[in-house]
Amino acid sequence: xxxxxxxxxxxxxxxxxxxxxxxxxxxxxxxxxxxxxxxxxxxxxxxxxxxxxxxxxxxxxxxxxxxxxxxxxxxxxxxxxxxxxxxxxxxxxxxxxxxxxxxxxxxxxxxxxxxxxxxxxxxxxxxxxxxxxxxxxxxxxxxxxxxxxxxxxxxxxxxxxxxxxxxxxxxxxxxxxxxxxxxxxxxxxx
Length: 190
Hints:
Layout: H1 2-11, E1 19-23, E2 28-30, E3 40-50, E4 55-62, E5 65-68, E6 77-78, E7 89-91, E8 100-110, E9 115-127, E10 135-138, E11 141-144, H2 146-157, H3 161-186
């Protein structure tokens, strides 16, 4: 009986990344998962954040339901309900002030009423332009990640977003018109 309760507890490990880079104003998921074990019931789930100057519990799930405890996260965070073992935190509209260390803590109750607690921490960085962004000219052929390059151009020029989009649309129309004219000129007249 002793090994029965020790062995399953060893499998109740939380897994998730050590660090995540999220895009400003985008959504992100902080993965936290475990493999459910028979005779161990999830009792409490908490997501705790430590910022530069403050800390607190963002989210708590217990027998009374889900509770968002920090007002700056209201209407912006959720945790899946119908996915056993998936207790990942979903954050909408990521703000620069959201950077910090997030701890996922789960408490299980065993069939003998003993409690087992596990936790895992993830450091979150919030960036305006991803570090893996690339825009490069390969012999006249533009190789790019479109959203990444638009974000880079937007940050570099400080132009309003609608103006950047307008310039891109007009530029595309001009290129289309030039290609159309070249094809029409080369086509033999009937």
